[in-house]
Amino acid sequence: MKNFSVPIKPDWEALVACIQRRGTPRRVHCIELFLDSEIKTALAGQFGLNDGINADDRYAGLKQEVRIQRFLGYDYVRQGAEGLNFPLHYQKATDTAAHQRANGRQYVDENRGPITSWEEFEKYHWPQPEQISTASLEWLDKNLPDDMCIIGSGGFAHFAEYLNWLMGYETLCYALFDQRDLVQAIADRLEQLFTAVLERMLAFPRVKLIWGSDDMGFRSGTLISPDDLRAFVFPGHRKMAAMAHAAGRPYLLHACGQLTAIMEDLIADVKIDAKHSFEDTIEDVRDAKQRYGNRIALLGGIDLDFLCRSDEAAIRARVHDTLDKCLAGGGYCLGTGNSVANYISVPNYLTMLDEGRRYRP
To answer: What percentage of the chain reaches a pLDDT higher than 90?
Structure first.
């Protein structure tokens, strides 16, 4: 694809209205949790999106981000506060993707994390609220084009994930039986830190949506029991949602896995406004729209495996059918089932976006 067949202009107000289910939007709005840096590099090179940007400019990365988002037709730039760094245990593997990462792929050690005892909890180098930086948010708040908004996201609300990452999944499973007080202490510290991050993000007027990200399941169920999620994870998300709502911002949640057992908790107790991350082998977004679409928005859902393996005609047909089934009344934004990973074909990704531009509600 040389370029998109239909031009569009960003409109953040219409994006927010769509997510809030305030009627069928005049056009399709697209959304992604993120694009892998390798995909951004490929797009910038193919379409000249770095032209005129000085690589030595302190804000070169943000300027590139704005250009890429506008080129692709997104109504926003996703940005969080920065500086909360959690030391973790990692393993590495060779990256075999088409847009390969030079340093390989990195995975958190599932067996043992840095905190497996009270002694390690006390000695752990916890990030401190005073380390939080909002430099990128400050630049975007002043320089982002008026027709775009900031989605406050990144570096916060990883309650279930950091319980897994800080303890190690195997260690966490044992601790839920014999060290629940330690699990609670970690959950409390995470809530304290993420509250500080969200307070800083909400101070920026151009942050119009808040997007938490917290994988809680795998293909056939939740990673820990629903009751343990209710005890250690949902209180944090409930607070994030309440803070966002008190500031007049919807709270979106990215969470992978088979979450049927906890969806009522997420909707009625946590009070999420939108759910992201869909995989055909777990739940097709078109089915989720029928099940939950009168209560929350559904985001993305063009399955990554499908997007990798399909041809242009199949992608266009899938996108068109998804929009037919999901767009009416609002509450749906087009996108991949998870994120624009570096193993996705760039032409296939652009075909998905192009079909969304062609569609007329």
So the answer is: 91
Residue type, 165: W
Amino acid at 53: I
Whole-angstrom Cα distance, residue 68 to residue 323? 24
Q: Is the distance from CB of 270 to CB of 241 less than 8 angstroms?
A: yes
Rounded Cα distance between 335 and 353, Å, is 8
- The pLDDT tens digits for 328-343 are 999 999 999 999 999 9
Q: Which of 153, 213, 156, 155 is nearest to 338 (CA)?
A: 213
Pairing of strands 274-276, 251-254: parallel
Query: Stretch 93-121: mean pLDDT, rounded?
Result: 87
Strand partners, 333: 299
Q: Is the pTM of this model over 0.90?
A: yes
Q: How far is CA 138 from CA 43, 84, 141, 144, in A?
A: 26, 17, 5, 10
Rounded to an integer, what is the distance from CA 6 to the centroid of its chain?
26
Count Cβ neighbours within 10 Å for each residue of 92-114 and write b for 16 or more, e otherwise.
Answer: eeebeeebeeeeeeeebbeeebb
Domains of the chain: 12-83+137-158+177-358 (3.20.20.210)
Backbone angles phi, psi at 53, to 5 degrees: -95, 125
Residue 101 has a pLDDT of: 81
DSSP string of 247-284, one letter each residue: TT--EEEE--S--GGGHHIIIIII--SEEE---TTT--
Distances (CA, A) of 228 to 187, 216, 247, 316, 357: 11, 11, 29, 41, 42
Q: Encode pLDDT of 245-257 as tens digits.
A: 999 999 999 999 9
Q: How many CB atoms lie within 10 A of CB 359?
A: 18
Helices H / strands E in the chain, number of each: 15, 11
